[in-house]
Write a structure and sequence with these properties.
alpha+beta, 4-stranded mixed beta sheet, 11 helices, about 50% helix, globular
C-alpha cells in the first residue's frame, strides 16, 4: 500500500502495469494491485484518445488562423517517444506560441469556443509580464485544459528580463512535424524538448514534480537522435549545465541508455 500510494501520487500506474511483467516475470504480485494497475492503464489509454482528438481540433483552429505553435512535453512524449501512449499520463495539453502573437492566439481560441474556468483568475495582459503561460483554457468539449505558453521558462523574479529559449529563432527553425490522426502537428525538436524537460524539472520545480522526469528522459533519448553538441551549447549559454547533468545522471542511475555525450570540462 505504501508503494501504491507513491504510484498514484506520481501517475506511474500505467508504466508499472507495462513494465512489471517484463522486469519481474512470474513475480507473485497481489491480485488487487495488478487489477488496479490494469484499470489505470485502460483509463489512461482511453484518455490518450481524447487528448489526440483535442490536440487535432486545437491544431485545426490555430493552423487556420496562421498561428505558429509547438506542442510541448507530454503531447509529444506520449505519442512519439513512449512505446504506448497510455504510459505517459497527461493532465492537460501544453503549447508554445510566439510571445508577440500570444494575445491573438488566446483570443482566437476563445472565439472558437474555448473558455476560461472561473477558478483560473488573473489578467492575461499582466501574465505576459510576470509569467510563462496564460491561465488554462478549457476545450469546447469541457474535457481538456489547454495551457498556452509564451515562454518556456519562468521569467526572472527580480524584474531583470533574461533571454528565453523561445526567443531563439533557431528553436522555431528546428521544429519537427509528427502525425496525429494523419495530421502532421508541430513539436519542439527532440534536442530542444530534452532541454526543456530538464530545465523545467531542475530549475522551475527543483525536482519536486516527481520521478516521471526520468522515464520521460529515458524514452526520449532511447528513441531519438539527440544533438548533444547543440544541447551542451544551449545549456551552457543559459547556465543550465549543472541541472541538466544531474537530470541525466539520475536517469542513467535507473535506466539502461545509449551513450550520453553531455558532460564536458565546464560541467
Amino acid at each position: 500500500e505504501i508503494v501504491m500510494r507513491m504510484v498514484r501520487q506520481h501517475r506511474l500506474a500505467p508504466l508499472l502495469h507495462w513494465s512489471l511483467p517484463q522486469r519481474y516475470p512470474g513475480e507473485n504480485i497481489p491480485e488487487e494491485v495488478t487489477a488496479e494497475l490494469a484499470e489505470s492503464f485502460r483509463n489512461s489509454s482511453l484518455r490518450s484518445l481524447i487528448l489526440q482528438r483535442e490536440l487535432v481540433q486545437m491544431h485545426t483552429v490555430l493552423d487556420k488562423a496562421n498561428i505558429p505553435y509547438a506542442a510541448l512535453k507530454g503531447a509529444y512524449l506520449a505519442f512519439h517517444a513512449y512505446p504506448h501512449a497510455a504510459l505517459r499520463p497527461m493532465r492537460d495539453l501544453d503549447i508554445l506560441v510566439p510571445r508577440e502573437m500570444a494575445l491573438d492566439a488566446h483570443q482566437i481560441l476563445i472565439d472558437a469556443g474555448y473558455w476560461r474556468p472561473k477558478q483560473y483568475r488573473g489578467d492575461i495582459h499582466a501574465c505576459l509580464e510576470v509569467d510563462k503561460h496564460f491561465p488554462p483554457l478549457r476545450s469546447p468539449s469541457g474535457k481538456v485544459d489547454i495551457e498556452m505558453h509564451f515562454r518556456l521558462f519562468n521569467p526572472a523574479r527580480d524584474g531583470q528580463e533574461k533571454p528565453d529559449l523561445s526567443d531563439n529563432p533557431g528553436l522555431w527553425q528546428r521544429l519537427i512535424h509528427r502525425p496525429i490522426a494523419n495530421k502532421p502537428l508541430p513539436y519542439l525538436s527532440p534536442t530542444d524538448l530534452l532541454l526543456h524537460l530538464m530545465i523545467h524539472a531542475a530549475y522551475d520545480h527543483r525536482f519536486n514534480n516527481g520521478p516521471l522526469l526520468m522515464s520521460d528522459l529515458a524514452y526520449l533519448i532511447d528513441s531519438h537522435d539527440i544533438d548533444w553538441p547543440l544541447l551542451r551549447q544551449l545549456a551552457h549559454g543559459g547556465d543550465w549545465s549543472r541541472g541538466c547533468l544531474l537530470s541525466l545522471q539520475m536517469t542513467e542511475r535507473y535506466y539502461e541508455l545509449p551513450r550520453i555525450d553531455f558532460a564536458d570540462s565546464d560541467s
